[in-house]
Amino acid sequence: MALTYLTSATATAAMTAIVPDSTNMKISLHTGSPGNTGANECAGTGYAKQTGQFGPCSAGVTTGPNTAVTFTSTAWSGTIGYFGVWDNAGTTWKCGGALSASLTPPASCSIVVAIAGISLSVQG
Question: Is the previous residue joined to 20 through a cis bond, with omega within 30 degrees of 0?
Answer without folding.
Answer: no
